[in-house]
Amino acid sequence: MLACMNFSSSLAVAGTLALLGVMLCTPAFAQQPQSREYEDQDVYIRLVLRSPAQLTAFYIAREFDRDSIERILATCFVTPIIHNKAIDVLWLELDNWQFTRNGEPIPRIKRDYWTEQWRQTALPQAHQSTFGWTLMPEVRDLRLDESVGGSVVIPRQPQPFTLTARFRTGADRQGPLKTVVFEDVPCVTDTP
């Protein structure tokens, strides 16, 4: 039966096995993914920080080639999950977010950066679409009890950084500015 499997099925099985291997056999020295949380009466935000091993397993399971995965691993993925608890509209606008280290800005890697990366690796369009849906929307309004999540990407940082997330509020974006700060956020690695 195994000999009858086509190449695509073999890759899917290999990806699934790789994902299980990472989940079940993660070396004891590997740094486990971290999360940070913030909550008040208006908003709940959880930052999920994924290790290179987790990112590799995720994209191998989706049949990404090694070169494309290496380009992903050269960056740092921060995955906020945001839940609006207020009656007022909360505006997610990534251009209003700031990443800094030692007071110096860290540029955010925007969606258009990946277009050239995928052209260079000849990543199939279906895979590019898969990657695109893992990213946080650039702009999104959140109504009462709505949530959104996705990855925000910056260049890999050797030291922890600060994320200052600013949200305009109100249907017309004229309400009070909501600011949430996460300090000492690391780019997770697979080694201590």
Estimate the mean pLDDT confidence.
86
Question: Helix content range of the residues, please?
Answer: 25-40%
Q: The biggest beta sheet, please?
A: 6 strands, antiparallel
CA radius of gyration is 18 Å
Number of strands: 11
Distance between the termini: 42 Å
Provide a compact summary of the structure:
Helices cover 30% and strands 32% of the residues. The protein has 192 residues and is of the alpha+beta class.
Summarize the structure in words.
The protein has 192 residues and is of the alpha+beta class. It has a domain of 130 residues: Immunoglobulin-like (Sandwich). Helices cover 30% and strands 32% of the residues. The chain has five helices and eleven strands, in the order αββααββββααβββββ. The strands form two sheets. Strands 4, 5, 6, 7, 10 and 11 form a six-stranded antiparallel beta sheet that branches. β10 and β11 form a beta hairpin. α1 runs antiparallel to α2 and α2 runs antiparallel to α3. It is globular. 20% of the residues are buried. The N terminus is likely disordered.
Distinctive features:
192 residues; Immunoglobulin-like; 6-stranded antiparallel beta sheet; 5-stranded antiparallel beta sheet; 5 helices; globular
Record the SSE blueprint.
Elements: H1 7-24, E1 34-39, E2 43-49, H2 52-61, H3 66-73, E3 75-84, E4 90-93, E5 98-101, E6 104-106, H4 111-121, H5 125-134, E7 139-142, E8 147-149, E9 152-155, E10 161-169, E11 178-185
Antiparallel strand pairs: 1-2, 2-3, 3-8, 3-9, 4-7, 4-10, 5-6, 5-10, 10-11
Helix pairs in contact: 1-2, 2-3
